[in-house]
Hints:
The protein is α+β, with helices and mostly antiparallel strands. It is built from 6 helices and 9 strands; from the N terminus they run E-E-H-E-E-E-E-E-H-H-E-H-H-H-E. The longest helix is centred in the first third of the chain and has 16 residues, at 55-70.
Amino acid sequence: MVINQDHGHGARAWRHGPFHAQHQILLSGSCASPPSSLSVRHSRSEHLCHMCLRPSEAIQITRAEVLLSEAVESPAVAAGCKLTGGTWVSYYDGQEVTDPGKLDIDHMVPLAEAWDSGASAWTPARREAYANDQGASTSLVAVTARTNRSKADQDPREWMPPLPEAHCRYISEWVATKLRWNLAADPGEADALKVYAEGPCETTVVHYIAAP
């Protein structure tokens, strides 16, 4: 697997095995101070983002922006970010979708996985930035609700897209997101990534830009 980090002055490429992020992260499920109970790790929202102000509006705006950016045929946009028409292809399973209501916006690295990848306090602003990250096309992805919910909070050791042809793209986008946000990989996850990086995805190129 080839990793390209874009520093804004051109990309630097190097061959890389399992990555090792040096910083650990806390991703809370609210905008309050970091919760003390591990039960929060399991309170994964069915919605997209955790915003401090106007959460419903924020969810709809981010969802609509992702759907608009990924549409293969653009939908019409009505008041309240309501989308009608349009066509999407869910790359996890290759399904063509014409009803946006049948799509979920998946965090490539789920919120609970981000929690489990570290435990050092993030500011509310950074949690908001992570949950709504549109600075990288790999961070949020529109996929069928069925595949998103089967994935839940699992990492690539536990879950991969049902479409085999999607595996290398999925691995590259998982790695790109982890590197972008300095998320750590646990040993089992790193071993699973290594199997792909040194096997079927050996020539796959990973592009990422570190989050601000």
